[in-house]
Specification:
Layout lengths: L4 E2 L4 E3 L6 E2 L12 E3 L6 E2 L12 E3 L6 E2 L12 E4 L5 E2 L12 E4 L6 E2 L7 E3 L4 E4 L12 E2 L12 E3 L6 E2 L12 E3 L6 E2 L12 E3 L6 E2 L19 E10 L8 E5 L1 H16 L5 H8 L2 H10 L2 H15 L9 H6 L2 H12 L2 E12 L1
Parallel strand pairs: 2-4, 3-5, 4-6, 5-7, 7-9, 8-10, 13-14, 14-16, 15-17, 16-18, 17-19, 18-20
Antiparallel strand pairs: 1-2, 11-12, 12-13, 21-22, 21-23
Helix pairs in contact: 1-2, 4-6
Length: 360
């Protein structure tokens, strides 16, 4: 395995001659401020630069063809990104949470992705899905879908014009866009996914189509437009966790619940700890009201691990499974393979740490 270093100026050093940057190569490095990936690198691995919260500059060479899931997730200081011409695969959540991006460009000639009309976004060309946007994005009127986490945690995004070509706004598309104040959903939109606008705490005005739209129940959770004086007081709980759940779980979350629900939440959490439960999520699912469990589930992106496992298996095939032969692999359905992969690779979540409780 290559030896990756960071010099005293915060510059990442990747040895010349490398063609692959390993999974998690610089993950969570606070020292990394800039990186120039050398020419010849073709693959950037999963989580390679994820949560490098001081990374401000990255240069991706023309040789790169593959950028792994979560590769730049949570790089909150990154302001610009250029996708080279040869890139043919960008996984979901690759740039999720890069809230300060203001310049996004795909090189001319890329067969799979584009930034048509200088839109400041990454669009998957074949499906017309907007995969990544920023506060300067102008959504082209040829886009049909705003993808998963496309604008997640985007800063300084106060409004967005969604064109009439868009039919679907996927899960987490505008999650935690705290500066977003108003949005007009055109009549063309038929579905809004889980947490699509959740935790947009200043989103006070939303115009929705009158008929025929499917909206996930938590699509607008935490938005001021949902608050009402006659609703039961809620407790806002911030919590972290201990344990390894999946590739992309957020480390700090909030959840609204009633005082009674909070007491039950804390009681179950303590019981799980006393009983040395390996996976608190499974324990909560068994013992808690389904509605509240599902809210917790969504808040910590439990859903993401399934999607990531699916993409990982698609990319690595049989190599995902140590003791499986080709015949067994070929005999299993996609769902069975994903379940097997998750069972083999997830250690479980064993404790929520509850803090910052306030009555709203």
């Amino acid at each position: 395995m290559a030896e990756y270093k960071i010099n005293k100026n915060g510059e990442g050093i990747i040895p010349q001659g490398e063609t692959y940057i390993s999974d998690g190569a610089f993950k969570k490095s606070k020292k990394l401020k800039s990186i120039v990936i050398p020419d010849g690198v073709t693959d950037i691995g999963w989580d390679a630069f994820s949560e490098c919260t001081n990374l401000k500059s990255v240069v991706i060479p023309d040789s790169v063809e593959y950028i792994g899931c979560m590769a730049f997730h949570g790089c909150i200081e990154l302001t610009s990104i250029t996708i080279p011409e040869k890139v043919e695969e960008i996984f979901p959540y690759t740039f999720a949470g890069c809230g300060n991006l203001s310049s996004i460009r795909v090189a001319e000639g890329n067969k799979y992705y584009d930034s048509r009309n200088d839109c400041n976004a990454i669009i998957e060309t074949e499906s017309n899905t907007l995969l990544l946007g920023c506060n300067r994005t102008v959504i082209p009127n040829t886009v049909t879908k705003i993808g998963v986490s496309a604008f997640s945690r985007c800063k300084n995004l106060t409004s967005i014009l969604i064109p009439k070509s868009v039919t679907s706004i996927e899960s987490g598309a505008f999650f935690a866009c705290r500066d977003l104040r108003s949005v007009n959903i055109p009549e063309s939109v038929v579905s809004i996914g889980q947490e699509a606008f959740a935790r947009c705490e200043n989103l006070a005005s939303v115009s929705l189509p009158e008929n025929g739209i499917e909206i996930a129940k938590d699509a607008f959770d935490g938005c001021p437009m949902l608050k009402s004086s006659d609703k039961e007081d809620k407790v806002t709980v911030s919590f972290t966790y201990e344990g390894q759940l999946d590739f992309s779980i957020e480390g700090e979350c909030t959840l609204e619940m009633t005082s009674k629900e909070l007491a039950h939440f804390k009681e179950l959490n303590q019981r799980a700890k006393d009983e040395n439960v390996d996976d608190v999520l499974a324990y909560f699912e068994e013992n808690m009201e389904k509605s509240l469990y599902e809210d917790i589930d969504c808040e910590i992106s439990h859903m993401v691990r399934y999607n990531d496992a699916k993409e990982y298996i698609k990319h690595n095939m049989l190599d995902c499974f140590e003791d499986m032969d080709q015949d067994e692999f070929d005999s299993m359905t996609e769902e069975e393979l994903i379940d097997r992969f998750l069972d083999d690779n997830i250690d479980g979540l064993y404790e929520f740490i509850i803090e910052n409780i306030e009555i709203k």
